[in-house]
Design brief:
single chain; 14 strands; alpha/beta; 48% helix; six-stranded antiparallel sheet
């Protein structure tokens, strides 16, 4: 799958007319969850997980916006999406509106997961600035770059810098976009920052506040976006997720080779050499088997790999650095005691969180009936499908892929790399094959002299002469001399060079002005509202 290339293009896969069949198929799969999750039926744990999801999402969302009075039932259909809590581009944001609209159409509850187990690696935003002729990208910081810890535990470090971000970013983009949504969005962020103090939470909550009344009902047919949101961490503290963790830890010797094989299959099919894409394989070191989870503590909130090692009727857990504990768990025993111990660990500030593949695996297997992915997540779920089928021996539920491309409203002549390449091909041709350009570029009224004709004929003779070890140097030197001698007859070359220089400037400008990854808050609000509303009306 590829991101839509054209401005205002939308990707929906499978197409909307096939969505009902996809949802029906997933609901049928849910009724067939015949799998033992370490002493409990998966169907029972999934029902518990859905109830925990809806309760946690309602508690979280009602902190900052109204929620429907009637709570969704865990037995009813649930649609999910998810993303890290940063300021993402409009194509990602469109996924949230597609989640709300598709759930409403199919009578499902809609929940967006805030993936806060990911580490904060960048505390600045790319903003375009400069002029139309010479635009450039700048990085505008919103907080100090350190510490690089998970969003779940990442507080705002520099309140003054954070408060001034909106003003500084608006100043940078002002020559190109006069009224970005940031003017309305950032005050909402600052208000939520006073309540939460958490970097990711205030960004996500303010964005979700905007979503509630963002659509134009005259275009979209929907007056609001009635989705719930909840951080992934709130679900990881629940009992259902602890059953999932305990089961994978108990069956890690079986799970690891299946996980690694699925990754190798992905790399082989997609011709990838990198052993870290889409994720690193799980290691085994001195009897310790790496689990598909992160671990850290509140006092030391740096993500570390979690390892496990069986010992009699217990499993030792460790980060192989500074933390270790024993869990009352074995491959065949009921995991009730282990689940209770894992819950206690979480309450005491020890975080065990899923890695990316396990996040969507658990969401698709237990939490919801339809997961809406962007393009990147959909590619990685190729691996998740195989893990579900090979380890759990269940048919993997289908997903919906949603993305869009929206460029900033900055009028410019889009120059492509192909345009530049065409001019470079001509310039190269003039250098090495000038005889092909003589007729096209000799000035009006001029004709080739006998001397020029002689040069062209001489070059042809040299080219047609078979190359040998003895004549190779002389032949090459002669052809180069003739090419140089023909250059004065190419009167159009200076114009081509000027066009090439202009094309290079245009390409550099287009790479800045036509970049699809700018944050949603840098776009004008009316443009976003119109695009999302019309796109939903046409595709759902």
């Amino acid at each position: 799958m590829q991101a839509p290339a054209e401005d205002q293009a939308v990707l929906i896969e499978p197409p909307p007319q096939r969505l009902a069949a996809l949802v029906d198929g997933n609901l049928q799969l849910r009724s067939q969850l015949d799998y033992d999750l370490q002493g409990r039926p998966l169907a029972k744990i999934a029902f518990l997980a859905r109830r925990e999801l809806l309760n946690a999402a309602r508690r979280w969302t009602r902190q900052y916006r109204d929620v429907p009075e009637k709570a969704p039932e865990p037995a009813g259909p649930i649609f999910l999406a998810g993303h890290q809590p940063q300021m993402f581009h409009p194509g990602v944001w469109f996924k949230n509106f597609a989640l709300g609209a598709s759930a409403k159409k199919h009578g499902a509850a809609a929940v967006s997961l805030i993936i806060d187990a990911d580490a904060v690696t960048d505390t600045s935003l790319t903003v375009p600035t400069g002029t139309l002729e010479e635009p450039r990208m700048v990085r505008v910081p919103l907080d100090r770059p350190e510490p690089k810890i998970p969003y779940e535990d990442r507080a705002i470090e520099d309140r003054a810098l954070f408060a001034s971000f909106g003003h500084r970013a608006i100043q940078e983009i002002a020559p190109l976009v006069s009224e970005p949504l940031l003017r309305r969005y950032w005050p909402l962020v600052l208000a939520r920052a006073k309540e939460t103090g958490n970097l990711g939470a205030c960004l996500a909550q303010a964005r979700h506040q905007l979503e509630s009344t963002f659509l134009d009902p005259a275009l979209s047919g929907a007056a609001n976006n009635d989705t719930l949101e909840v951080p992934q961490s709130r679900l990881c503290a629940g009992e259902a997720f602890q059953w999932f963790v305990a089961h994978l830890l108990a069956r890690l010797p079986t799970f690891r080779p299946i996980y690694n094989e699925a990754l190798r299959d992905y790399r082989r099919v997609h011709h990838l050499r990198s052993r870290s894409h889409p994720a690193p394989e799980l290691a085994e070191i001195d009897g310790w088997i790496e689990a598909p989870f992160w671990v850290w503590t509140v006092n030391s909130p740096r993500r570390r790999r979690l390892f496990a090692r069986a010992a009699a009727d217990k499993i030792q857990l460790s980060d192989r650095e500074q933390w270790e504990m024993r869990l009352p768990l074995s491959a065949e025993a009921d995991a009730g005691s282990a689940v209770e111990r894992l819950s206690q660990l979480d309450r005491n500030g020890v975080r065990i969180r899923p890695r990316a593949l396990m996040t969507t695996l658990w969401a698709r297997l237990a939490l919801g009936d339809l997961f809406i992915h962007g393009i990147g997540g959909a590619k990685y779920d190729w691996v998740t499908d195989r893990i579900i089928e090979r380890f759990f021996r269940l048919r993997s539920p289908g997903i919906l892929v949603v993305s869009a491309t929206l460029h900033l409203p900055i009028e410019h002549a889009p120059t492509t790399a192909r345009d530049v390449q065409a001019l470079e091909d001509d310039l190269r041709g003039m250098t090495y094959h000038p005889e092909r350009y003589l007729n096209a570029h000799v000035g009006s009224g001029r004709s080739m002299t006998s001397a020029v004709q002689e040069l062209v004929a001489a070059k042809r003779r040299w080219i047609e002469m078979p190359q040998t070890r003895e004549n190779a140097r002389e032949r090459c030197h002669a052809i180069r001399q003739i090419n140089a001698a023909l250059q004065p007859w190419l009167n159009g070359r200076p114009q081509f060079e000027e066009r090439h220089a202009a094309a290079m400037r245009g390409l550099r400008a287009h790479q800045v002005l036509g970049w699809r990854e700018y944050a949603f808050c840098l776009y004008p609000e009316p443009m976003l509202r119109k695009f999302f509303s019309a796109a939903l009306a046409s595709v759902l």
